[in-house]
Amino acid sequence: TAGAATPIALAAGEERSDITIALRPVPAVRLSGRLVTPDGSAPPPTTIRLAGAAMTDVVTMGLVSGPDHVGLETVSGMSDAGGRFTLLGVPAGDYVLTHANRFLSRAIQQGQPAYWISERVTVGAEDVSDLIVTLRPALRVEGRIEYRSNASTPPPPNPGIVFETPFGDLGQFAAEVTRGTTPTFSTVAAGGQYIARPYDSSGWFVHSVTL
Question: What are phi and psi of 109, to 5 degrees?
């Protein structure tokens, strides 16, 4: 875990060449199962990822055009047309099985159902087979942006809202904003905790965020 890691101190201009990272082999097993939607049907092929539960305080940076991930990924895979999946090389431990697609709104824009996964899985020394994982429909988040001023300062031309996770990483996804006197926004997201952060405020600052 990040909390149990050994800190490495570096002074300005200092170089370290004595870092030793010891690796040891551990047995790994096969994790297989099936994804199902709330009505019991098979979802479309879905990319999934298995992250160590103890590593959820670690953020891995994604591509510039892609999202960041919370948790150190152990293995990833994809379900087939029947919802079945197999993950190979999984060491013993506690994990969180999640969806790999952080941009759930893209599925909505393409006219497809959007689902999210957050399933805790414990792996031991034996293969895990026939694990049933229920997908959950994406949750809709809607709201409005209000500009309060006694002066005649015009609102910014391109207001926006980014939803971030509380771990301090970069924006996870942006909400689509409808222009107008009182701009509105809407998006879909997986269940969890987020920080709603406005951007492109053009001199305006955030007074409050209410739910």
Answer: -65, -30
